Each structure stands twice: as structure tokens, then as C-alpha cells.
Amino acid sequence: MSLDTLKREVCGAIDALRGELVSVSHAIHANPELAFEEKFASSLLTKTVEGHGLGVERGAYKVETAYAAEFGPSNAPVMSILSEYDALPGIGHACGHNIIATAGLGAALGLSKLGGKLMGRVRYLGTPAEERGGGKEVMAQHGAFDGVDASMMVHPAGFDMVTMPCI
């Protein structure tokens, strides 16, 4: 099966989830939570993942509101997909973390629909406390990125970027 065919299949699976993903995004936006307090968002995201047949570890990597789901062949390269979901103090989701959360969710769920055709392993991580507290750093110190070959996250912006020059 060609990569183009697999890409079309994943895109179709994500498109089919559009209504659910938009609802999740809107719900997170309507319930802003600060760093390390993202109980609503974490619960909603993990229940959504489980609703699609994937197992989820809650409180992953020593962070109460973090989570992890992993699927795909165990002997394959590992790609992590990240979802952020905390809000900014006093202004909520002005930075679009509700969108980041559902973009990662959609990518992970879309890839999971490939089943045995998936050529790599996916580690889908809920990464709280981006705005203050360094949730990803705490998770990294406890092994979240051990064995990961590449990592990916989407961040909304007013223009298209292939790379983030500040990294």
C-alpha cells in the first residue's frame, strides 16, 4: 500500500471525526483550566481516546493531569504526538491550546484507524502545564520521550509555518 493511499485513509478518518473533534475543542475552550489543574480537559480527552478503543494511562509520567496512549508495532520507530490543553491565567484559551489538544487527538485517532497498516508506533501524550510549570519537562524527566524517534505538535498561528524558528 502506498504512502499516498495511507495518507488519504488517515485524512478520511480524521474528517469523519470532525464533529466530535470540534465538540471537544469547544468544550475545552469553554472550561479553561490553569497549569496542572486541567482535570476537565484531561478527562474529556482520555474518555474520547478510550471511546475509540485505545487504552490510556492517566497521571502519566508523574503528572496528575497528563496521559499517554501507545499503539502500533512494538518493533517500529516511535513518533510522539502531543496535545496541550492548559489555559492562560486571566484570559483562557487565547493561545489556542484547545485547538492544539484536538489537533493531536485527531492525528492520534486518525492514525489508530490504520490498524495493522500502521508502519510505526505512536505515543500520544497529553502534555499539561505548558503556560507555566513546564509539564513536558517534568514528563521528560520521568521517561515520556524515552525511545521516541521524533515528536510532533501543532500550534495555531495567523500564518502557515513549516518550522518554528525559535526552537
Low-confidence region ranges: none
Structural class: alpha/beta
Largest sheet geometry: 5 strands, mixed
- Averaged pLDDT: 95
Encode the helix/strand succession as letters: HHHEEEHEHE
Q: So what's the overall shape?
A: globular
Strand content: 5-15%
What's the total helix number? 5
Number of strands: 5
**What level of helicity do the residues show?**
25-40%
What is the straight-line distance between the termini? 35 Å
Q: Major sheet: order of its strands?
A: 1-2-4-3-5
- Rg: 15 Å
How does this model look, in words?
By secondary structure, the chain is an alpha/beta fold. It is 38% helix and 13% strand. It is built from five helices and five strands; from the N terminus they run αααβββαβαβ. β3, α4 (97-112) and β4 form a beta-alpha-beta unit. The mean pLDDT is 95.
Brief descriptors of the model:
single chain; 167 residues; alpha/beta; five-stranded mixed sheet; 5 helices; 5 strands; 38% helix
Give a brief description:
The protein is α/β, with parallel strands linked by helices and 167 residues long. Helix content is 38%, strand content 13%. The chain has helices spanning 3-16, 18-30, 39-51, 97-112, 135-141; strands at 57-58, 67-71, 78-83, 121-126, 150-152.
What topology emerges from the helices and strands here?
Blueprint: H1 3-16, H2 18-30, H3 39-51, E1 57-58, E2 67-71, E3 78-83, H4 97-112, E4 121-126, H5 135-141, E5 150-152
Parallel strand pairs: 3-4, 3-5
Antiparallel strand pairs: 1-2, 2-4
